[in-house]
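To illustrate the input format used throughout this study, we show a single complete record. The first block contains the structure-token representation of the backbone; no residue identities are included at this stage. The design step must infer an amino acid for every position from geometry alone.
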């Protein structure tokens, strides 16, 4: 079974909606299941539920066939996304260009001029698709 994972913000931002629209299209084209992922940061103290996430997505896009809604808690969005993609053995991850920028800033603390797209492709055994909003 093919799986596409798409991390999004809640409430859905303009960038999250664009990334999600592309992920839905890709999942439909590939006949894949879709995991819509939101990371609730411990330090922000919010508690988004799967129902909240599903309602927000369906309010924007209607019912999404073969979609699964997941809320994970973590300290770092990027690490939590990597963990979910690896744990689900995803075939593709669809991320927004803003997310790539955040990852670049995070990893720049440890590496000189990190190539995030290349880093993700090396760390994840799946397609990494970047979407510009």
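Output of the design step:
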């Amino acid at each position: 079974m093919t799986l596409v994972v798409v991390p999004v913000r809640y409430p859905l931002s303009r960038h999250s909606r664009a990334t999600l629209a592309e992920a839905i299209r890709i999942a439909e084209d590939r006949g894949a299941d879709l995991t819509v992922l939101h990371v609730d940061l411990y330090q922000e103290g919010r508690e988004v539920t799967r129902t909240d996430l599903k309602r927000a997505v369906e309010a924007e896009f209607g019912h999404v066939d073969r979609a699964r809604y997941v809320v994970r808690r973590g300290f770092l969005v990027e690490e939590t996304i990597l963990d979910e993609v690896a744990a689900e053995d995803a075939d593709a991850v669809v991320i927004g260009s803003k997310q790539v920028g955040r990852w670049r800033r995070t990893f720049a603390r440890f590496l000189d001029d990190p190539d995030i797209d290349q880093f993700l492709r090396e760390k994840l055994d799946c397609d990494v698709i970047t979407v510009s909003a």
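Structural context for interpreting the output: The mean pLDDT is 87. Residues 49 and 86 are 22 Å apart (CA to CA).
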